[in-house]
Amino acid sequence: EEMGKDDELPLIYPSSPPNRLKHGKREDLQVIRGIAIIAVLAFHLLPGAFPNGYLGVDMFFVLSGFLMSTILCKSALTRTSIIDFFVRRFKRIIPLYAIMLCVSTVATVSLFTISDMDNFLTDIKWALAIASNWQIVLRKVDYWTKVFDYQVLLHAWSLGVELQYYLIVPFIVLFRTTFLNGPARLMLFIIIFSS
């Protein structure tokens, strides 16, 4: 059989594994991460010039979901591997988060008025519980309005979402691999993405 012109087109998805940097991270994902960082910074520094820069946060969430799901799907999930997953995630995030909370507390006590301290004390409780995202939801406060108040810990919401995701994703993957066969997986996929 003779190959036509269409058969000579390059593959959209390369058959070889993606390039990795010296530290083992994928180049393509690091580029996406860099674009997301630049988008978020541009949005915060020049919101008028980059009105959609906040979408960089969505890019981080999608990237994080992809990476965590990939990591978990490649390994056999056991009680030990799930605990190890939690320990690695928390060791990577919690120490810097704790430092940020300490610095924010010292700065707030030093620079803000008593009325601002009341807001901060409420915010720090939610931040310590890693649930700042739920504070925004339960108080039914618009994030964009809060940006203009003195909300020192407003940015903690995204870390709350990420850590809460880390808490549930191993169990979702475990459920998927343990209880769902091919047709059930397809049905679950259709239900989730059609709702």
From TrEMBL:
Keywords: Membrane, Transmembrane, Transmembrane helix
Parts forming coiled coils: none
Organism superkingdom: Eukaryota
Keyword Repeat part of the UniProt annotation: no
A family per Pfam: Acyl_transf_3
GO biological process, one term: polysaccharide biosynthetic process
GO molecular function terms listed in the Swiss-Prot or TrEMBL record: acyltransferase activity, transferring groups other than amino-acyl groups
UniProt key word Zinc-finger: no
Gene Ontology CC terms, in alphabetical order: membrane
Parts of the chain that traverse the membrane: 30-47, 53-73, 94-114
Domain Acyltransferase residue range list: 28-194
Protein name: Acyltransferase 3 domain-containing protein
Organism (species): Pristionchus fissidentatus
